[in-house]
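Run log // design_07
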């Protein structure tokens, strides 16, 4: 008999294998994009054009996190880890892993789904990038203790039924004193409070037959496909006091991004973000954004166990 948690992980792997994070328009996992001229363009998954358009959309959603030198340069110190060992847990289509590899990191990227591994390997092949791309359960990493100089995960571990185990595994494989950076969805966000709990749970009466976890899963990523098997956003306090309690210097930061602004489009469809002044939007983003970045470091005296 399959243990419930392993069965749940299999469901997660199968769902994300069929509905990968492609950032396309319409169906989750689709490959329809708006090209440079604003026209719809359908591309083949795994093609150079697919990676180009998927990255463009992903970067556009996170404009405030980039620097002129590098995507997500305000979050990641690429130069610090040049020729260092870096681990990504949950590589998806390989966008972030390729950014690290291009900047000289010795990259290892793992993913639970075969689709993620295949697409990331294809991306690295097309770009001539070095790296180890492995299919692996993040809560049971087949990697040695005290191996990596830096580890990160971006928008993935809230989809794991065993989020704590996955974070503990990251702790185990990090070298003593090495830093970590993990982005998880934010439960005290405007998107979760309004779109999921109020709109779907209260107005549409779905809280009568769905638990908070089921609501978050159904109306998080892939809502058009009635959600994925497991999505559970976290709070800053949970991240600091529970999930990352073994780490030192733990900090949580609500990241800017389009998650908050999208909610204004739901609430005010004829006003929305196009006319919303930045000075009004900015405080909402700082307080109620959808993306919560947790950083810390493994204690220098820690021994993996």
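design_07 sequence
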């Amino acid at each position: 008999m399959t243990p419930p948690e392993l069965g749940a992980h299999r469901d997660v792997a199968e769902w994300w294998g069929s509905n990968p994070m492609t950032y396309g328009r319409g169906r989750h996992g689709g490959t329809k994009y708006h090209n440079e001229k604003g026209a719809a363009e359908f591309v083949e998954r795994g093609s150079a054009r697919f990676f180009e358009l998927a990255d463009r959309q992903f970067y556009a959603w996170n404009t405030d996190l980039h620097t002129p030198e590098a995507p997500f340069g305000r979050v990641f110190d690429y130069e610090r880890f040049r020729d260092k060992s870096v681990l990504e847990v949950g590589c998806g289509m390989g966008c972030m892993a390729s950014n690290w590899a291009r900047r000289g990191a010795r990259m290892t990227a793992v993913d639970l789904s075969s689709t993620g591994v295949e697409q990331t390997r294809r991306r690295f092949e097309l770009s001539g990038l070095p790296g180890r791309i492995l299919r692996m359960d993040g809560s049971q990493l087949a990697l040695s203790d005290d191996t990596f100089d830096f580890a990160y995960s971006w928008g993935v571990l809230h989809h794991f039924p065993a989020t704590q185990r996955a974070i503990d595994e990251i702790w185990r494989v990090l070298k003593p004193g090495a830093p970590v950076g993990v982005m998880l969805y934010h439960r005290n966000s405007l998107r979760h409070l309004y779109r999921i709990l109020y709109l779907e749970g209260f107005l549409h009466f779905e809280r009568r037959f769905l638990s908070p976890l089921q609501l978050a899963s159904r109306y998080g990523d892939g809502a058009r496909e009635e959600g994925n098997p497991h999505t559970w956003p976290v709070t800053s306090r949970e991240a600091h006091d529970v999930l990352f309690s073994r780490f030192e210097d733990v900090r949580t930061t609500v990241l800017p991004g389009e998650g908050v602004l999208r909610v204004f489009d739901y609430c005010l469809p004829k006003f929305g973000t196009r006319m919303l002044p930045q000075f009004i939007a900015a405080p909402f983003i700082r307080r109620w954004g959808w993306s919560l970045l947790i950083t810390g470091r493994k204690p220098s005296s820690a021994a993996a166990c």
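The chain is about 35% helix and 15% strand.
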